[in-house]
User: Which sequence fits this backbone?
């Protein structure tokens, strides 16, 4: 089963657009990433720019409204994620516990839906979806 | 199982390999190393439910394992050097063992894990012993889990592991990474064990269960570990590529009622495209390392041809035939020949496929193999020889024990009968 571990770094909700983590923090994170890789559980990972560079598109009455970041009301925002393949929810939690986080920081662990988890009609509705298989990697 | 036990199990899955590998660096015997690690696990199961999970469970387990090691040395079971000792010498040894374990467990290095894998897959062991030890020591599976995956009684599996450990010990198999020509041979053994595990999950050899996805995931995990440990071995990347590409079709291989769906009939939008990309990247990596013509690389290249086709009709069968030709050059096998005949049938028409099939049909290795009459039946149907086609499919049904495949063949039989009526 696959899980997404979403990291919510302290203060990221207010971070400047050009904010970058310290070399020390990155070093520790790379060590952690390496441990995920060595255990064969890491499938993907990415870091995100702070919300001050982002935008929120909210929908009501069939209309989309755009709000530029930072978002005053947001307390916890995602700074990046890992996708891991493990055998249980407990194993995902144990991996999250090992991440080099500081005080008040949060990692949220969520299982990723597999197509086979969906009922028949949902699977049917997903049929014919053109995945980005024209990407360079697949064409190569 | 309670929550805390599930958590302990998860900690074990994460930590056990490095724990065992670190202890084995000192004991030089993976059987003893595993027993000490197991003792540490038992201590955790006794103490953690009351005391809670320690902040650093890895360090806790290592300390517990060290304590057991020193205890057993004290009881006279020498781990490092077996000979009679006077009391002072024993004390000295205890200290040395403690120091060595401290040092080893303080920093388990990748080489320890690699040595563990090479030892578990040592050619001195029977193949089933290699599989069981690998899943147990590097996969972190319990004996019960392995037994369930391979549909054998837990007791049988347990005996298999005991026997394997005994064989390693009696043969004085050194705890080391082989070098030179020996390395190549031993890597092959490791890769074949991992691929056997994958295939056991991918196609059950008997019973009604078509797939055991967890076992495929375990094999993929082992493949990813190996890529980290042997980054310059092209076939290691190629095997990972092959497994990723095959596993990417998992969701499409089963129909609404659990029935098998063959590759060309699969709904390609159910393929896992992120996984395909990982497989393609691993294959490219293998090719960059100069291993494009290796056994796993060629098999992965064939899988890649299928994955690249947006529809079954777009499949580049000519290219697939060429890759099969290359594969037959390096590992002549009647099974490969059979698959090549299917590709020839698609690329050049059923008559050409039938001719290719007839050239290998007498091979004794194919006697009793249900896919031979099954493929023959398909090709005969396509050229309108319906009576013979039905006979072949009926023969195939009697030759397989896999219920899903029997269903698939029975369905095929009905199709041929219908086609014969309307012809």
Assistant:
């Amino acid at each position: 089963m696959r899980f997404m571990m979403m990291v919510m770094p302290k203060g990221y909700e207010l971070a400047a657009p050009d904010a970058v983590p310290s070399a020390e923090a990155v070093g520790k994170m790379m060590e952690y990433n390496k441990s995920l890789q060595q255990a064969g559980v890491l499938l993907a990972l990415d870091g995100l720019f702070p919300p001050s560079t982002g935008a929120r598109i909210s929908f009501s009455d069939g209309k989309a409204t755009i709000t530029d970041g930072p978002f005053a009301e947001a307390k916890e925002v995602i700074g990046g994620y890992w996708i891991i393949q493990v055998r249980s929810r407990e194993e995902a939690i144990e991996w999250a516990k090992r991440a080099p986080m500081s005080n008040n920081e949060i990692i949220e662990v969520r299982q990723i839906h597999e197509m086979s988890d969906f009922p028949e009609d949902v699977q049917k509705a997903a049929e014919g979806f053109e995945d980005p298989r024209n990407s360079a990697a697949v064409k190569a | 199982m309670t929550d805390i036990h599930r958590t302990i199990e998860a900690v074990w899955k994460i930590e056990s390999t490095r724990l065992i590998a670190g202890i084995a660096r000192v004991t030089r015997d993976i059987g003893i190393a595993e027993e000490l690690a197991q003792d540490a696990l038992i201590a955790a199961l006794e103490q953690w439910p009351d005391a809670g999970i320690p902040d650093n469970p890895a360090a806790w387990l290592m300390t517990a394992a060290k304590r057991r090691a020193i205890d057993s040395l004290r009881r006279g079971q020498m781990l490092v050097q077996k000979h009679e000792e006077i009391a002072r010498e024993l004390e000295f040894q205890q200290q040395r063992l403690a120091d060595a374990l401290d040092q080893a467990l303080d920093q388990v290095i990748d080489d320890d894990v690699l040595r563990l894998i090479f030892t578990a897959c040592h050619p001195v062991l029977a193949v089933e012993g290699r599989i069981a030890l690998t899943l147990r020591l590097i996969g972190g599976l319990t004996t019960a889990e392995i037994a369930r995956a391979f549909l054998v009684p837990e007791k049988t599996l347990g005996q298999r592991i005991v026997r394997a450990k005994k064989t390693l010990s009696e043969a004085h198999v050194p705890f080391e990474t082989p070098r030179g020509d020996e390395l190549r041979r031993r890597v092959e053994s490791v890769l074949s064990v991992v691929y056997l595990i994958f295939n056991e999950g991918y196609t059950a050899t008997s019973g009604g269960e078509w797939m055991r996805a967890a076992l495929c995931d375990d094999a993929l995990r082992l493949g990813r570990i190996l890529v980290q440990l042997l980054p310059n071995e092209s076939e290691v990347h190629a095997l990972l590529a092959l497994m990723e590409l095959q596993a990417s079709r998992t969701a499409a291989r089963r129909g609404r009622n659990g029935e098998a769906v063959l590759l060309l009939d699969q709904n390609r939008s159910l393929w896992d495209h992120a996984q395909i990309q990982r497989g393609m990247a691993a294959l490219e990596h293998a090719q960059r390392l100069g291993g494009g013509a290796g056994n796993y690389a060629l098999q992965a290249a064939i899988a890649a041809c299928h994955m690249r086709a947006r529809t079954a009709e777009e499949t580049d069968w000519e290219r697939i035939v060429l890759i099969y030709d290359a594969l037959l050059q390096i590992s002549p096998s009647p099974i490969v020949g059979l698959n090549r005949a299917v590709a020839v049938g698609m690329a050049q028409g059923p008559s050409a496929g039938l001719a290719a099939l007839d050239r290998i049909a007498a091979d004794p290795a194919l006697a009793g193999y249900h896919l031979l009459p099954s493929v023959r039946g398909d090709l005969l149907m396509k050229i309108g020889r319906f009576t013979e086609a039905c006979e072949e499919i009926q023969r195939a049904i009697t030759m397989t024990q896999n219920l899903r495949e029997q269903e698939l063949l029975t369905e095929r039989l009905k199709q041929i009968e219908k086609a014969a009526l309307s012809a």
Confidence is low (pLDDT under 50) at residues 79-83 of chain B. Residues 350 and 383 of chain B are 7 Å apart (CA to CA). Chain B touches chain A through 38 residues (CB under 8 Å). DSSP finds 19 helices and no strands in chain B.
